[in-house]
Every structure is written in structure tokens, then in C-alpha cells.
Amino acid sequence: MAAIATGPTEVDRKLHLVVLEASPGRFTSLIGLARSIEQSKLAEFSYRRSDRTEFANAETIRVYVAFAREIGILDENLGPTRPKAQVRSLDNFQAWLSDLVGRYLDDHGSSQQQIADAVRHLLSASPAELPSQEKVRVSLSSPLPPLDFRMCLRIMALLRPHFVGLVSRRVVLVPGVFTA
User: Fold this and answer.
1) Coil, helix or strand for 20?
2) In a domain, 124, yes or no
3) 61, 74, 121, 172: least CB-packed within 10 angstroms?
4) Domain containing residue 62
């Protein structure tokens, strides 16, 4: 299977980099691994601001390292849970990542069906509610932490588009737009 075309700074690319940089016993803390990645100033953790390339700080990168450990990409010793040779290619990593995230969601009461049911419930409520990520998340029986849920949905939208589609649009509701 060919790698799914994702942007160079998308969450899958960041997590892939985390796995490739991880090494059991080399780092004693999440922030230690994050600082090592920060010092490398790699494109995956870059962004543009005022026509300049900036790089994420260690605390921002630590969030991705913690998420990688939470979903089972990294073990407690901050080593990959699969040999790097098996996930060095992006296509192999993406397949593994989407499988892990799918299982993680299932194991935490947030399966594709449970998410779909929460969306249907919100839309059929009286009055109907917009199914934002946060409203869907809190509608689940045992909601994941907001950041974990958001990252999981982003990964699944990127790597398994049939799982969920994410749309982010600013909506301004003006009085009189919706009437009952």
C-alpha cells in the first residue's frame, strides 16, 4: 500500500518522527525526547509566522511524545513498540498508526459506531445541536481527554477518510437565521 499523501507537518508525520527519534534508555523523560527533537529543528515541527520559519518548542513536542506513548507507539521506556525497520517507511507507519488509533478509540468507548451514534443523537435532539468535536466527545459514555480525542480524530480523518470527516469552519449565527 502506498503512503497516504499528507502534509509535511501533519500529525502522522510528527508521530513518525517521534518514533524514529525514540530509543529505549536514551531518554529518561518525555521532555528529554522532546528537547532532542526540538534541537534538531526538523521540518515536521516547523511552521510559518511573519514570512519566517519557526520551530515548535519542547513543551509542544512533548504533547506528541505523550500521545505516542498513550496510544502504544512508544513503551514506558520511550522506545518504539515495533522495530524501527518495520515502520521506517511512511506507508508502513501510517498503516500501524491507524490500526493503533482505531484500537485505542475502540478500547476507550469511542468507536466509529459510538461516534456516529453521538453525532446522530446531537442532530436529532430538540433543539438540534451542531456536532462539534467537543460536543461529540462529551456525548460518549467515557470521554477521552480533549487533546487525545482531537488527535485521534485527525489521524483517522487523514489515514482512514471513511472513518470520519472533519470540517472546521467558522460559523457565525445571526439572530433570525434559524427558526423553529
Assistant:
1) helix
2) yes
3) 172
4) 7-86
Query: What is the rounded CA–CA span in Å between residue 163 and residue 130?
Result: 19
Is 16 among the domain residues?
yes
Length of the chain, please?
180
Contacts of 52 (CB under 8 A, 6+ apart): none
Same domain for 82 and 112, yes or no, is: no
Does residue 12 sit in the same domain as residue 56?
yes
End-to-end CA distance of the chain: 49
CA angle 171, 177, 179 (to 5 degrees): 125
62-103 tens-digit pLDDT: 999 999 999 999 999 999 999 999 999 999 999 999 999 999
Assign 55 to helix, strand or coil.
Answer: strand
Cell numbers 534538531: residue: 40
Q: pTM of the predicted model, to two decimals?
A: 0.86
Please name the helix (run of DSSP H) or strand (run of DSSP E) that holds residue 53, with its range, or none.
strand 52-55
Together in a domain, 76 and 129: no
